[in-house]
Design goal:
Strand order of the largest sheet: 2-1-3-4
Order of helices and strands: EHEHEEHH
Number of strands: 4
């Protein structure tokens, strides 16, 4: 897809979810190698990326990690790939790969289904502060 940085991994996230926003801010704080850029799923660019990779946007209730021109990961696999790329102690999170993907996604889906009830949501997508604005596409 044209116009995306080829040397960055793109995390597509639910821009109105409080838990998702906290997760994005966590990744930004720990992304010491400047690996990631962020796009809200609800944004025009988010919708274009989802369409480009061939996912059904009506069933998106998860994060997506997209490496332009290479691959994409969805649900628990995306979370594990993000942990791996953060490095340091977060790399140990990849030990969860010993759990079959289907089983990990059952837990992931349960959290995704209840995230608004447990953590709340906003009326509109998060607005990046000037300090982190360069991390968003």
């Amino acid at each position: 897809m044209e116009g995306l940085p080829k040397d960055k991994k793109i995390i597509l996230f639910d821009g109105i979810c409080n838990f998702c926003e906290a997760s994005v801010l966590f990744v930004i704080r720990h992304d010491k190698k400047d690996v990631f850029r962020f796009v809200a799923i609800e944004s025009d660019l988010g919708k274009k990326i989802i369409q480009y990779i061939g996912m059904d946007s009506k069933h998106i209730d998860s994060i997506i990690l997209y490496s332009p021109g290479i691959s994409y990961y969805y649900k628990s696999q995306a979370a594990l790939e993000i942990a791996k790329n953060l490095g340091g102690l977060f790399h140990f999170g990849t030990l969860f790969r010993i759990i079959p993907n289907g089983l990990r996604n059952v837990l992931y889906d349960y959290i995704a289904k209840n995230r608004y009830v447990w953590f709340g949501k906003k009326d509109s997508c998060m607005v990046a502060t000037t300090e982190i604005q360069s991390k968003f596409l």
